[in-house]
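Input record (Table S2, row 231):
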Amino acid sequence: MISIANACAMSYQTILLCRRAFVNLVSVHRIGAEARLDSARWMDRDVVVKQRVVKGYRHPTLDRSLQSFRIKNEAKLMIEARKVGIPVPIIYSLDFEGNKIVMEEVPGMRVKDALQDPSVDGDGVCRRIGEIAGKLHANDIVHGDLTTSNMLLDGDRIVLIDFSLGQKSSELEDKGVDMHLLEEAFHSAHHSRSELYAIVKDAYAGTYAGGLDVLKKVKEIEKRGRYTRKE
Ligand SMILES: Nc1ncnc2c1ncn2[C@@H]1O[C@H](COP(=O)(O)OP(=O)(O)OP(=O)(O)O)[C@@H](O)[C@H]1O
Ligand SMILES: [Mg+2]
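Output record (magnesium ion complex):
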């Protein structure tokens, strides 16, 4: 067993060597459609263990390779993101046989819930969302599920999680799809504070030089969606 104090300092190849982590499970954090999250203690730290759930309806070989791809993909992108200064949980240990990531438990709440609270500084939160999205895309990291459910608010910092559907890409289309999803999810989760999305867009374009082109692409993707829905 090789443990990782700070995964970003290690290369992906090194991390591939890691095997089982000794973890004391404390409680189930959440069981989702594709992943199970447990709160646990690991080396005297509060951690979250994310484990991919086996899906009975998929062929076992396909399921194994998909789960294995997703967990490695998630770990790889978290490490890439951290390297370029995007706040993500610290990875402590990886178990690629059990499809598990042991990571820092980020205190605080989901940004989705925080933005429902009128006492939270919505402008500040949205500016940080835009800056994080801009930094991701400036470094050709596409998140794949960029919603306020996949952001945690810890004091003043926003921590990005759930990179399992992400990829490295410099394509305008991929970045546009990311921003389109963020906008749709934002308007549906925060319809009473929809006007705040303008702040996200401003901060995004202010952080990422190619941001305005991506936002133009988003308009094109929206039009395409409307056209397809009509048919
Ligand atoms: N490092 C963490 N610290 C604290 N809470 C976390 C952490 N990671 C995940 N969570 C909590 O667990 C929830 C689900 O996590 P996550 O978004 O990674 O999984 P998922 O959406 O079920 O998985 P996937 O989309 O990969 O199938 C988050 O919304 C958050 O509330
Ligand atoms: Mg999620």
